[in-house]
Amino acid sequence: MSLHFAAVSDIHGNLPALEAVIADIAARGITQIVNLGDSLSGPLWPRETAQRLMALNWPTLAGNHERQLLTIDPAEMGPTDAAAHAAIDDDIRAWMAALPPTIEWPGNVLLCHATPDSDDTYWLHRRRKGSHGRMREATHEEILPHASHHALTLCGHTHMPRAVTLPDGRQIANAGSVGLPAYEDDVPSWHVVETGTPDARYLSAEFVDGRWQVTLHAVAYDHESAARRAEAMGRAGWAQALRTGKMG
Asked: pTM for the whole thing?
């Protein structure tokens, strides 16, 4: 385990984006990678992405979509989970079932998917009132109730990259999404998440001079191939998100 590592999250079955991120990380000389969850769900390449991740054997978390894939009746699933459920096999389900919700990392680091105590709570961003569902950055007062004692906590879930330093020096960073730069959801109320570009996102963290330094990265890749795949699977909204980082 390294004090210089990369964190990816929310791949959502986007194998071309994942491969581009892997190459970018390698070009930076980083050899240790952790995965913060929501790896497969979506209409793209869930089975192939799972096979790639299983072979890589990175430290990997279960996100809310892993939980949903394993616990919700397929007849009750939304289309994003249903597409992945139809594509994966028992070996992949067993891999997902063994994934932990959090991991302690050297250097007083906690890895989680959404917050340390939830896999589906928005942390560093909130729905902005009166903004047609658009998001805003959460305040320190909103962030603090979920913060652990760790010097650095890494999360994903909202797909929106951000690094925050609290007044006492604790740091919290969201890696963003490798595979899905925009989406809309109606839980807990309707909202739209948009990064504004089609790039794949991840972060790197290095322990230097007694503290963690976090860098957010955006990686261009062949997003058109992913958008065409989404269209072929009947998901025009995903295709729009993958091409532009925005919803229609």
From this structure: 0.96
